[in-house]
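Dear colleagues,

For the upcoming journal club I promised to circulate an example of a predicted protein-ligand complex. I picked one with 5'-O-[(L-methionyl)-sulphamoyl]adenosine because it came up in last month's discussion. The inputs are reproduced below in full, followed by the predicted structure.
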Amino acid sequence: MADKPSYFVTTPIYYVNADPHLGTAYSTILADVQARYRRAAGYNVKFLTGMDEHGEKVAEAAEKHGMTPQEWTDSQAPHFKDLWKRLEISNDDFIRTTEPRQYKAVQYLWERMKESGYLYKGSYDGWYCVPDETYFTETQVEKGDEENGTPGAHLCPDCHRPLERVKEESYFFKLSAFQDRLLKLYDEHPDFVQPDFRMNEVRSFVEGGLNDLSVSRTSFDWGIPVPFDDGHVTYVWFDALLNYMTSVGFGVDTPEARAEFAYRWPANTHIVGKDIIRFHCVIWPAMLMAIGEALPEHVFAHGFLTVRNSETGKAEKMSKSRGNAIAPHEVIDLLGVEGYRYYFMTDVVPGTDGAISFERMEQVYNADLANSWGNLISRSANMSVKYFDGCAPAKPASADAFANPLAEVADGIFERYSARMDVFDYAGAKDEVMALVHAANHYIEDSEPWSLAKDPAKADELAFVIYNLLEAIRISAHLLAPFMPETSAEALRRIGAESEAGTDDLAGACAWGGLAGGAPVEKGEALFPRLKLDEDK
Ligand code: MSP
């Protein structure tokens, strides 16, 4: 384990109040692409996802379905696990907050918090948003009005739904004591929050002053019991955030667990949606500071997926309540799993909100995958089979007998690609690969292998051209593998480089001239058949 550097990446753990949807799948695929890329780049990766099972929202969903909360969350776990499997999510761990390991870790957290001096008992009197599982003070509350048909109502300033009045005995975490330390963290580690424009949002929130946070509930019992006070259960976010440390052995007193914790913690990147940035960039680091544990290196916040309202023309957040949610299987049916992954990862820029549409999915799929990448593979494999008896030409003896524009494009490609991947600029990374794919398609037109094949004196040049095309495919397949693992492995297999799939030396694999040549090449079916959308989509 320790012979490679660790890379620990996490998704939010999802509330189990409804089935996973495109938005939750988006966070998960973002993390999966990073995990696959890091494995290929030589890291020992831990990729964690899971389910957030406590809190009022989940208890309400259970009640609505006539089940106990535990029965309900047990019944939902397969929905998440099955969708992740279908979307080729390569998580190494799946945590559920109702598992014994989470109970133990949270109870250990309580002990550490108590020792820290940042915990006190008091009484909470204020507002609570159940859908967001968030507390709001009187001054933060949005007041309803006649115009919106909500006169006198107390609404959530974030999601605008009615708030619940809560008055109960509670433990408080002294969040207010961490204002200066948090601001210092943001100053000293400007890339703690990514992309950088999100940092301003976090900073101004903290500069505005922090309230102590109620971290236990007494009017409610679906949570992890506070070990030293009967009747108190843990506030769902105090429990949920800890999942990241639980999964790497926090609070387990064995040599193995301590070694695992030392190797994995702190996490490299927590991937979250912009709606939960305060929990991850304010509360979570303060909790860790209080108990003296290391802070995660980065929190990467993505925007929301939006859809255009055909009546108003405006982009709106995709959600079930608005009735504009697209189910993952609708997109999978259209684009296939790998087309789905490619579209969301390369066309929906993760920093800001991203508008999605079936029209755009079709354009991207046809332009990049059917016409460019898929076409390159089939034309090159066809020519290998036709002109070289079903095999790849041997590696050319001399690299500079003829001009080789593809080697020039591929020169330094790993460095350019990884500089983009490292900062989650997946669109930028894709552009680097597509530059090679486009150059290869142009190279076919410019070098006219079909004319070379007619002249026996040009046999060496023909072999050179076809070898270069296969080599461009080999390198592109490696670089596209984090986005599209199956089709990339298939492309490698078709050009006789099957054993290279799943490399942990991506830099080495991208060096020009790696294809041995001479191995059987297979034409196969089109990897990305062109698609035509139904008019009514
Ligand atoms: N349970 C908490 C997270 C705890 S992490 C310690 C939670 N769960 S959630 O299921 O409501 O949301 C999980 C993630 O899905 C969030 O990052 C949220 O931003 C994301 N998305 C939900 N709807 C979305 C879109 N329409 N678009 C993109 N992502 C969105 O919050």
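Two points we might discuss: The first strand starts at residue 6 and ends at 15. Residues 249 and 257 are 5 Å apart (CA to CA).

See you all on Thursday,
B. R.
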